[in-house]
Amino acid sequence: MKAVIQRVSGASVTVEGQITGRIGRGYLVLLGVGKDDTRADADRIAKKLAGLRIFPDENDKINRSLLDVGGSLLVVSQFTLYADCRKGNRPGFSNAADPGLAEELYEYFMEKCREYVPVVEHGVFGAHMEVSLINDGPFTVILE
Fold first, then answer.
1. Residue 79 catalytic?
2. What is the pTM of this model?
3. CA distances from residue 11 to 28, 37, 83, 97, 132 in whole angstroms, order as listed
4. Is 14 a catalytic residue?
5. Cα–Cα distance, 33 to 49 (Å, whole number)
6. Among this protein's residues, is 6 annotated catalytic?
7. Nearest C-alpha neighbor of 3 from the set 137, 136, 111, 110
C-alpha cells in the first residue's frame, strides 16, 4: 500500500461535475493498493497517518499532528501509484491490486481512518476524478 500525503489548506474531488468530497485544513491522501496488500497494511498506514506530525506548532516547528489541529482527510484511490515505468514509455500496472481487492482495502482504509479522524471525505473508487487542492507548504510525504 502506498499513500501520498499532501498537507492542504483545502481540497476537493469532483466526479461528473459533482463534488463528492471536500475538506478544509488537513491531508489529501492519494492511496494506491498493491496486489500483495492486506488489512494489516491498511491498519498500519491509517495509524501512522493519524499520528504523523507535519503541522507547525506555535513556534513554527513541525510538531503537530492532524488530530492536534482538528484536521480532516480526503482520500482518493489512485492505482497509478503502482505504475512501473522501467520498460518502454507506457507504464505497466501489474503490481497494482485487482479492482475487487483494491476497492475492499480502500473502503477498509477509510473505515480505519475514521477511528482516528472524525472527518474522512473521499472520491469515487474507479471513477474519473478531478482533484483540486491548495497544497500548504508545499508539504508532501509518502508512506509505504
1. yes
2. 0.94
3. 7, 27, 24, 26, 5
4. no
5. 16
6. no
7. 110
